[in-house]
Every structure is written in structure tokens, then in C-alpha cells.
């Protein structure tokens, strides 16, 4: 699990079980802490999502803390609407209280409660950009450099770049942007059969919240066209 920009310095682990024993205390549920949980439950019961398929191993990409709740993003299909449990551990691997019962919704996200140890951070950037690079060994460094430098002129301050496999020279270009604090690279598990682009965009939505006030989504060959000397922040 990446904690490079997570707002919650605790490890959030997802697990599936039919039931969990908590003695006489009763199990805490996500519905106890998420203000819009009724809407999530309504969407699940309506079946507004991919309900078919067999669930694979539940792979967590990262976890993010918000004022009232936290969210874990996953890279696994077949879990839509299924019950899961959120477990919390500190940096030393020690448990932080009991598990919280929740469910997978949307397709690659699980909403959980927060723990007192969580830290709330204000947005660091005004405008960021979420980007997925083409899968495979196709060279992407030229289009990548053009996109980053062009968008920096338009006022984009930070880039979340999602990759699977990429050629060596493009990796060097990515590394230079990470070292200059212009970007964060999120490597997607290559042994998954899910739609990489779809998962990345959903994951980036949660990753950028509380970290960037505004975020743009686009492919490597997309460009914003502005009139005169306007920048993107002028129109958001």
C-alpha cells in the first residue's frame, strides 16, 4: 500500500469473511461513520455496477483519509457490492481497534471509518492532472514530456501518472519528474485483467482529494486549448 500522499498514516487492510466475532461490543460498520452511506447502499442494491464474475484476490492499491471517513482503492474485479472488512494497523503493524464492516462500491473502492490516529491534510496544490500511460513497451517519453511541460505552462502544478509496463527511457523521464517533485508515479499490478485505464481514473479521484483543490483527467495525447494568455485556473 502506498502512503506517499495518503492523509492517513495507518495501514488499511481489506479482508473478506462471512462474519467476525467481536464479543458483546457489536461490530462497527461503515454506515456508522459515512454520512452518505445510504446512497452507497442504494446503488449497490440497485445493481448499478458489474455484478458478475468471480472475485479474484483482493489487491489494495492505497488508502486515503478524509475528514469523516477513509477509502481504500483496489485493483481487483468481481468484488462489486460484496461485503468486506477494513482492518487498521499502525506503521509498526500493530492493530488499531476492531475491523469495520463495509462493501465494495464503486467497483474499485471501499469506504471505511477513520481512526483517531488519522491526520487530516489540507490541499497542497491548486491544480493537478491524472494521466495513464499506454500499456506495453511502447515508447512514451516524447508525448509524456510534451504533455507535462505544456500543462505546466497552463498552470498544472502536479501530475499523477499511472503506468503498467513502459520502456526504459520513458522510465528515466518519469524518474526525473518524480525527483523534481512534479509528479507521482503509481505502478499498476501487471497480473490483473481489469481495465487499467478505468481503475486508474477512479483511483486517482481518491488519491487527489485533499491533496489538490482541482484535478484534470486526460490521456497522453489530450491537450487543453486556451484563448490568449489564459491558464486552466482561470476557467475552473
UniProtKB/TrEMBL annotation:
Top-level class of the enzyme under EC nomenclature: transferase
Family matches, as InterPro entries: Glyco_transf_92
Membrane topology: Single-pass membrane protein
Keywords noted in UniProt: Glycosyltransferase, Membrane, Transferase, Transmembrane, Transmembrane helix
Localisation per UniProt entry: Membrane
Keyword Secreted assigned: no
Enzyme Commission code: 2.4.1.-
Cellular compartments per GO CC: cytoplasm; membrane
Domain of life (superkingdom): Eukaryota
GO molecular function: glycosyltransferase activity
Family, per entry: Belongs to the glycosyltransferase 92 family.
Protein's UniProt name: Glycosyltransferase family 92 protein
Amino acid at each position: 500500500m502506498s502512503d506517499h500522499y495518503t492523509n492517513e498514516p495507518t495501514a488499511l487492510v481489506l479482508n473478506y469473511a462471512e462474519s467476525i466475532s467481536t464479543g458483546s461490543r457489536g461490530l462497527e460498520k461503515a454506515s456508522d461513520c459515512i454520512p452518505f452511506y445510504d446512497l452507497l447502499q442504494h446503488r449497490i442494491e440497485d445493481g448499478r455496477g458489474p455484478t458478475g464474475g468471480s472475485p479474484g484476490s483482493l489487491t489494495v492499491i492505497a488508502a486515503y483519509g478524509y475528514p469523516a471517513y477513509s477509502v481504500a482503492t483496489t485493483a481487483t474485479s468481481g468484488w462489486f457490492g460484496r461485503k468486506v472488512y477494513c482492518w487498521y494497523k499502525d506503521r509498526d503493524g500493530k492493530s488499531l481497534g476492531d475491523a469495520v464492516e463495509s462493501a465494495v462500491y464503486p467497483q474499485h473502492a471501499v469506504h471505511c471509518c477513520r481512526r483517531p490516529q488519522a491526520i487530516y491534510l489540507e490541499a497542497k496544490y491548486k491544480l493537478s492532472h491524472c494521466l495513464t500511460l499506454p500499456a506495453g513497451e511502447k515508447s512514451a517519453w516524447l508525448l509524456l514530456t510534451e504533455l507535462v511541460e505544456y500543462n505546466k505552462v497552463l498552470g498544472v502544478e502536479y501530475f499523477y501518472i499511472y503506468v503498467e509496463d513502459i520502456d526504459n527511457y520513458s522510465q528515466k523521464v518519469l524518474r526525473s519528474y518524480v525527483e523534481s517533485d512534479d509528479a507521482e508515479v503509481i505502478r499498476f499490478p501487471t497480473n490483473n485483467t481489469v481495465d487499467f485505464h478505468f481503475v486508474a481514473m477512479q483511483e486517482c479521484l481518491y488519491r487527489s482529494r485533499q491533496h489538490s483543490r482541482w484535478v484534470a483527467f486526460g490521456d497522453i495525447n489530450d491537450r487543453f486549448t486556451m484563448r490568449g494568455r489564459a491558464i486552466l485556473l482561470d476557467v475552473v
